[in-house]
Design brief:
The complex is a heterodimer of chains A (221) and B (297). Chain A has 9 helices and no strands. Chain A has 221 residues and is an all-alpha fold. The chains are: A mainly alpha (221), B alpha/beta (297).
């Protein structure tokens, strides 16, 4: 087992992660309970929810107790690398949802052509998860050390990414899915953009984590 | 591994570390922590031991000065050993061992698992390597983490108050494991309020500054051991050559005093293990093992 595997293992047994999955599964069940209409409309809703949930998962996956954080940061080669690995483990925790959501949406919508719809769904949900993970790295300790500020950064980042035109790679996919005009190529390009977005935000967050003088400690430096 | 193969140690120059409020915890500290040696950093509460441990392990950044390590990764056991959920010593050794690859002197995974078994047995742990860490008592959890540290054999191994929660026999065994780690070429740093049972060098830290260099080398150190009940202690330890008197003399040590509840024995470091083993094998209670200080003499 690698260090990412250990972080993922720690994440899987944490109640905050279980809560994020439970909330997302509830959202999927509610959105797909009745007549759902075009599948792209479902993708837009469940993708938007996944953006918020992947932010939540990355924040929830950050180890907070000082003894564990110190041990893992020393082994990882410093706080910067540990923050990057925690972002990766948070994103990995969202991957099952990236696959599950489009399948559920397609089956509920009684879509005649499964293949293209599933591909579009997976790409758009992956885009959402990557954008959410990028926001999550900025909203986690030690980059954001106050819980209330972390919540504001996380929630504010998600609202910005969904509500302001051009603010994130997910926005054009979200808009196209909402009006039923999304294509696989559009989603694929957005997904590549989301990879770059997540990489840049995670690198930025890692740089800030590396500059903290007391990583893992609750005290302000 | 011979001395010529030993790795470079950790070098600290002009190290300054302040905490919120502006108090300087480490004050222009220059320190060489050589490979192949156990360095004990001793001091009172708030003297900067834990901060130094975190800086040496690369977890905290200094406010000024430089830290040079032979490898970027290190093993750090914090003052309170973490009980990671759904994890065992074996899982931790496996995961951390992969992450530390290239930064250890240990072999492959099988070798690390063998070393983990070996260390748990030496420490007298009542739980195996697969026991969940969350189910262990404080002392057993500490033993599990010390065994993981030994199994990983990270080139830079930092242990913050490693003897916390250990009984005297386990503390002695832990000291021997750390000496063995150092012998294999690791830079081992331990902190504590008193000099530990085994160390090549000691550094007394006071207000973030070393106040005296290497006061007592470990092989010259003498320990005070309290054993009960005193009558049987005198009989059992008498067989080892412990005689009444100021000692330690030509035998392994001296029986200083036998009170109503316990006997106090003065034992040099070289005979400590033999004495403790004899006492524990005979069913005696070893209630205290501490290094003798100037005040005790």
């Amino acid at each position: 087992m690698s260090l990412v595997g250990l972080l993922l293992r720690l994440q899987l047994v944490r109640r905050r992660s279980l809560a994020a999955w439970a909330v997302y599964l509830t959202v999927l069940a509610v959105l797909n309970a009745g007549p759902t209409g075009p599948v792209q409309g479902s993708f837009a809703m469940t993708g938007a929810a996944l953006l918020a949930v992947s932010t939540w998962l990355v924040m929830a996956g950050t180890v907070c107790d000082q003894a564990t954080t110190s041990m893992l940061a020393a082994v990882a080669g410093g706080p910067r690398r540990l923050h990057l690995l925690q972002a990766v483990s948070g994103l990995l925790a969202a991957v099952p949802l990236v696959v599950l959501a489009p399948i559920w949406d397609v089956l509920a919508a009684d879509q005649p052509e499964l293949g293209p719809a599933l591909l579009l769904g997976v790409l758009s949900h992956l885009t959402a998860a990557l954008v959410g993970a990028g926001i999550g790295t900025l909203a986690s300790r030690p980059v954001t050390r106050d819980d209330a500020v972390a919540l504001l950064v996380g929630a504010g980042g998600c609202l910005l990414a969904l509500g302001v035109e051009g603010s994130s790679p997910f926005w054009p996919v979200f808009a196209a899915l909402a009006d039923g005009s999304a294509r696989v190529t559009t989603a694929a390009v957005a997904c590549l953009g989301a990879v770059a977005w997540a990489t840049v935000l995670t690198a930025l967050a890692g740089a800030v984590a590396g500059r903290r003088r007391s990583y893992g400690a609750r005290a302000r430096s | 591994m011979g001395p010529e193969d030993r790795l470079d140690g950790v070098e600290l120059r002009g190290l300054v570390r302040r905490v919120p409020g502006g108090r300087t915890v480490l004050d222009r500290l220059d320190l060489d922590l050589p490979a192949g040696a156990v360095t004990a950093v001793v001091g009172r509460n708030g003297s900067g031991k834990s901060t130094l441990a975190r800086v040496v392990a690369g977890v905290d950044r200094p406010d000024a000065g430089t830290v040079r390590r032979p490898v970027p990764r290190a093993f750090l056991l914090a003052e309170r050993a973490p009980a990671l959920p759904r994890c065992s010593a074996a899982v931790l050794t496996d995961a951390l061992g992969r992450a530390l690859r290239g930064s250890t002197v240990a072999g492959d995974g099988a070798s690390a698992r063998h070393r983990l078994h070996e260390a748990l047995a030496a420490l007298g742990s009542t739980h195996g390597p697969d026991a969940a860490l969350t189910r262990l008592s404080k002392g057993t959890l500490q033993k599990a983490h010390l065994a993981v540290a030994y199994a990983l054999a990270a080139r830079v191994t930092v242990l913050d108050e490693p003897e916390t929660g250990l009984d005297p026999a386990a503390a002695t065994a832990a000291g021997e494991l750390l000496l063995a780690l150092a012998d294999s070429g690791c830079t081992v740093v331990v902190t504590g309020h008193r000099p530990p049972g085994a160390a090549h060098r000691s550094l007394l830290l006071e207000q973030g500054r070393p106040v005296q260099p290497d006061p007592v080398r470990d092989h010259e150190r003498v320990y005070l051991v309290d054993v009960a009940p005193p009558g049987r202690a005198a009989a059992v330890l008498g067989h080892l050559g412990l005689a009444p008197g100021p000692g330690p003399g030509p035998g392994p040590g001296a029986m200083l005093a036998a009170g109503q509840e316990q006997a106090r024995v003065r034992v040099p470091a070289a005979a400590l293990r033999q004495t403790l083993r004899a006492a524990l094998d005979a069913g005696l209670d070893v209630t205290r093992v501490v290094p003798e200080t100037e005040a005790d003499r």
